[in-house]
Amino acid sequence: MDPILDIRNLSIRYQGSAEPAVRNVSFTLGRERLGIVGESGSGKSTVGRAIMRLLDTAELTADKMTFEEVDLLNASERQMLKVRGQRMSMILQDPKFSLNPIQRCGHQIAEAYRTHVRCTKAEARQRAVEMLEQVHIRDPERVYDMYPHEVSGGMGQRVMIAMMLLTSPDLVIADEPTSALDVTIRLQVLRILDGLVRDKGIGLVMISHDLNLVRAFCDRVLIMYAGRLVETLDAKHLDRAQHPYTQGLLAAQPRIGGPRGPLSVLDRQDSWLNAQGEVA
Ligand SMILES: Nc1ncnc2c1ncn2[C@@H]1O[C@H](COP(=O)(O)OP(=O)(O)OP(=O)(O)O)[C@@H](O)[C@H]1O
After folding, report:
1. With a 6 A CB cut-off, is 57 part of the ligand 1 pocket?
2. What pTM was estimated for this model as a whole?
């Protein structure tokens, strides 16, 4: 089956920056959960925003960058408006910044529905309530009428996912979707995302700092370091990592139940990148 995403040699340089934020990154995505892991500033979110074509202030080059039949390098903004929000969606870390603070949660979902589908206000409301049910909100009529500041972080994140599901996207990019949530709520949100991959066959890109989370949740993992893709591994075979950066990340993970001792600290080496700045 053709991949949902096919990216070859993607490089991105922000205007005014001497160094590219992303260099020669290549990967494909099928109907699977793909993790992108790396430290802060390694370029993970830049890759996510590039796929959505949300980088106005950056120069982007690639040999190929396609989403299904859409050529993301050459698509017009008009085409992208149709693709973005309908066939591909993004979930960000904190719903507080994504939801409109002065509109009731359900109203925001209903209005989003009406931008895509011609229908009455009552039909849009009905659809919004159904979406809230789909993300396991127990009392959807009540949550429909709540303002974003009245719902918890986990509930807000589910409202965002409900909004995203309106158009049955094929690709979801989740950028640290659970970092602001406590452990039990995090599991609920992950279960919903997992259901989307299993039941609806979407492709999910999960951007995260958390190697343990990605290891448990994803099928494959891309490891980024200093804008480069240093390694791609099956999540269940992370322990077979060859690159010293990945090995260092794994060694730096605290282990519950293991012997206590000082946590290992990642010691970066210039030799991880060669003189041309490529992965050694
Ligand atoms: N709008 C921007 N303008 C200029 N430089 C930027 C911009 N956004 C990000 N950068 C730079 O690009 C590099 C990659 O940033 P990016 O946010 O993609 O990293 P990240 O791995 O997602 O980090 P984090 O985990 O902290 O979100 C960093 O050096 C960052 O400072």
Report:
1. yes
2. 0.87
